[in-house]
What does this fold into?
Amino acid sequence: MSGMTTGAYRELHERSSTDPASFWGEAAEGIDWITKPTTVLDDSKPPFYRWFADGTLNTCYNALDRHVANGRADQAAIHYESPVTGTSRSYTYAELLEHVAKCAGALRNLGVTKGDRVVIYMPMIPEAVIAMLACARLGAIHSVVFGGFAPAELAARIDDAAPKLIIAGSCGIEPNRVVPYKPFLDQAIERSEHKPEKCIMFQREQGPATLIEGRDLDWNDLMSDSTIEPAECVEVAATDPLYILYTSGTTGKPKGIVRDNGGHAVAMHWSLPNLYGVGPGGVWWAASDVGWVVGHSYIVYSPLLVGATSIFFEGKPVGTPDAGAFWRVIEKHKVEAMFTAPTAFRAIKKEDPNAEHLKKYDVSSLKRLFLAGERLDPDTYHWAHGTLGIPVIDNWWQTETGWPIATNPVGVEELEVKPGSPSVPTPGYHVHVLDDLGNQLPANSEGAIAIKLPMPPGTLPTLWQDDDRYVSSYLSAYEGYYLTGDGGFIDEDGYVYVMGRTDDVLNVAGHRLSTGSIEAALSGHPKVAECAVIGVHDDLKGQIPRALVVLKSGVDVSGEGQTEQLRAELVERVRNEVGAVAALKVVDVVVALPKTRSGKILRKTMRQIADGQEAMVPSTIEDASVLDKLRPVLEKH
It folds into this structure.
């Protein structure tokens, strides 16, 4: 970290390294414990470290009850904005608590107790939050599966988590279609060996579902049943699981990331004010989905634990109804900080390159924009920063960690922004760049990014009922380190640069090149909206890069020689900015890139198609037809 300012951030990071017990013990003061922990870090069984091991608490109490008791009863807890259905609704902390306690009472009557699993398969509706918090209230473990996931994927999660019951929405609503969830759910239960005892169905008028007698119950019937007593909070150990969230494993069985109650509550309560600059009473918007880790951490738990107001948005950045959707919500609710994926801003930029929609709204309440979920390319950073005129802050983390590994900790100290970097390691995370043998690399040398153990509270203690896989997947590459699976470097000022998954590093004639650096050069071209670079097999050089570019709306290169002219300009840009060694020759102009629903580009899948291998198409793909249209392009070279 040499060369960094010796400011508040540096001091804090230092303390989190040298004395984690005092650092996190102090952070734990922000949580209401039933039994206060006397041991902050239990390091008796490495690599299985546990935080606040002898403490007990209830996460739902910390998110709702204590705020109602301490003067926030009438403050909005969530503002629900659903442009796809044309509805808006706000819930105060008192109202949300009433709904959650009632839902928990209904679940308790159905036999759900501490440690039971409940799968939640819902769209972005307030009932999803109510269901999550109701589980937390009872000490049950929720596992949210992204609404509309394919039956095979849902079945794999049902078999792994073995839920007592499933709570589902009848359908999800996209800008141009209604997605019925119930048939997927029925097929998944049919396929799974484990059978839930009951399914609770929240019926949406846009696509009600047929209930199966004896198994399926109607959410509204349960919630309006006057005989159901609201449930009180159940005491759980800090080390008891709060939830399981599955990430797609590369093969077969998905990985169930476990989040504990104690460490998670402390990290979530600490991170919103310190990393994002939003405190109690602040209005915060994470434009993601509860099916993803961002939704768990920063739509539901972190803002509610802090006592902030969280925006709950069922819509898209464009098309619901237009590229002004974000600005409208920011103006309406006076949002002070927003967090979304770079892909959302690329979509807005593509649709409305001159930000004409922005001129219709007053977004002066917005102080900062945070972007994460995939690499923030410098071009998108500059467009967002130039358009909004506020700090645009990248942050980098993973489902596994649950909160940022690297960011600009604006609540502690607002550091200089370096485009292309998510800034510095977050207090609690000790980030190193290692070579293949596990040696630490000097500044500006690219290698594997790893985090020294123990990781801070709120990160995964293990995988659901699979300690061996936890060790083999994350801890076996380097002794005493968690392997992030991302490659990059740390500069002389201590700033982290994440250049892509380690399997996205190209090896061109012995030179290691990251796809990120080539993409940064391409996306700087004024006609390019977004791009992806993949390394394809080459007999001579091992691998050569191929580029796929999507043009901005209104850009037409159909005239004679125009596509060739654009290709030549792009090849020239890469030669000038990355160097001749990149050897980029093949550039294809395409209509769209295949992505997951959270906005990650499927580079590995495209690379497998281009290399003539059997392609792994993840279940999280947003639109499979995009990949089908690309196949002939990828196969032709």
